[in-house]
Amino acid sequence: MSDAQAQCFKAYDIRGRVPSELDMDLAVRIGRAFAEYLDARSVVVGRDVRLSGPSFAQAVSAGLAAGGAEVLDLGMCGTEEIYHAVNHLQCDGGVMVTASHNPPDYNGFKLVRAGARPLSEDTGLQEIARRALNDRRGTLSGAVAMRPVSTRDAFVEQLLGCLTDTLRPLKLVANPGNGAAGPVLEQLFARLPVQVTWLHREPDGRFPNGVPNPLLPEHREATARVVQQTGADLGLAWDGDFDRCFFFDEHGQFIEGYYLVGLFAGIFLRKYPGSKIIHDPRLVWNTIEMVERLGGIPIESKCGHAFIKERMRTEDAVYGGEMSAHHYFREFAYCDSGMIPWLLLLELLSSADAPLSELVRARQDKFPVSGEINRSVADADAALRQVQERYAGEAERISSVDGVSMEFTDWRFNLRRSNTEPLLRLNVESRGDARLVKRRTDEILALLGAPAA
Predict the structure, then answer these.
(1) 15 and 145 together in one domain
(2) Cβ neighbours for 194, distance < 8 A, ≥ 6 positions apart
(3) Residue 361 maps to a domain
């Protein structure tokens, strides 16, 4: 196995460029290592829309079968459908073939055990990597028997079960970005009192409109424009495997995921008073203030779905949210979903006397943010040290939960390595001073001295 292949194993999933980093032979080895590590009797496999998805699903399934597992094939689906199916079918594990928002020539795997518990570098992924990279038993030939299964109807029913109040008619713009979300959305919309304008509806692994990643400003323009043109109440967009949903208000303005964390925390704290809420360390002041004001307990966790889910289980938290638009729910096996958030928001908008822009405006004014900024640097450790040394004497609080977080009287920042890409990610927020956010952001970027990623 090459060094490039070893680099495919990230903090909580596997992904790499095809075929220079991730190829079919390695996929077979990963499947076999996964099945043997879990001593799995049954594993459900699904894939997103990437063109290499069917081949990688076949390859990892061949490895799973060689490791002694029956393979149940969901076909094209979303990552959260794997989470649901593992529980619904009572499987020993699940494999989602996806590279999420990476470029089209990437692919990868998200692995979960029984109960949809994720495997991360701390909970088995390193051992699977060791086994796969050192497997010398040779390649497998011939197609593997994969038993087709469908759990979508049950999945849709569980999603609709999250709604407890009557919805009022709303106008939506829905942009699956040619990813896997379209077929699920069609079933949901057919059951809801909504009028929908579609963009980029059809699943297409060629990604003719760009890889779906609405965190990138250039990928927001189409959704924002159609919201404005149609007078919609809400705009929605998803990433390729639809475990993240992104929101646009009635003016077409993109709403940073940070502010949604506080909004959703409020929904659950009114339903479950005194509950624990998990949040990531990138942007925190708004979430902490809202949770504490409503009588909840805010708890900080390292970024990433595997780490958030583990902390949620440990704390029995009712909800967890990341500013990157991952939202986690105790009632969904502590897993993240890109479908539950917008359903909850429809319910909130149906009962509120205000549109989405007004629900978040006060929070945006009180805690303005930079938005996440990515930079590629030659030496991430050195860059982190340099920034920390620059501000250590002024900081009132320093945390290393994930990267470095430094707090001052009226502003704070988090600078961390990406768990999935060779990047540093910067987030800056302040107490009511947008100009201060810009000044401090520019200051830190100048220290990094790196071009935009």
Answers:
(1) yes
(2) 167, 169, 170, 171, 172, 346
(3) no
Could you report the per-residue pLDDT of 177-236, keeping only the tens digit for each? Answer: 999 999 999 999 999 999 999 999 999 999 999 999 998 889 999 999 999 999 999 999
Q: Look at strands 319-321 and 327-329 and give their pairing.
A: antiparallel
262 in a domain, yes or no? yes
Are residue 273 and residue 407 in the same domain, yes or no? no
Q: Are residues 11 and 139 in the same domain?
A: yes
Domain range for 281: 257-336
Q: What is the pLDDT of residues 94-114, one digit of tens each?
A: 999 999 988 999 999 999 999
Rounded Cα gap, residues 122 and 366, in angstroms: 37
Question: For residues 133, 135, 140 and 145, what is the CA-based torsion angle, rounded to 10 degrees?
Answer: -80
Nearest to 80 by CA among 337, 340, 341: 337
Tell me how far apart the alpha carbons of residues 141 and 154 are, in angstroms, rounded to a whole number.
Answer: 35
Q: Do 9 and 103 belong together in one domain? A: yes
Helix ranges (H only) for 101-181 are 125-134, 152-160
Active site residues: 100
Distance CA 47, CA 101 (A): 14
Token pair of 162 as six digits: 């999250």
Per-residue tokens: 260: 């949604």
Residue 161, domain member (yes or no): no
What one-character DSSP code corresponds to residue 48? -
- In sequence order, the 6+-apart residues with CB closer than 8 A to the CB of 168 are 193, 349, 350
Indicate whether 165 belongs to any domain.
no
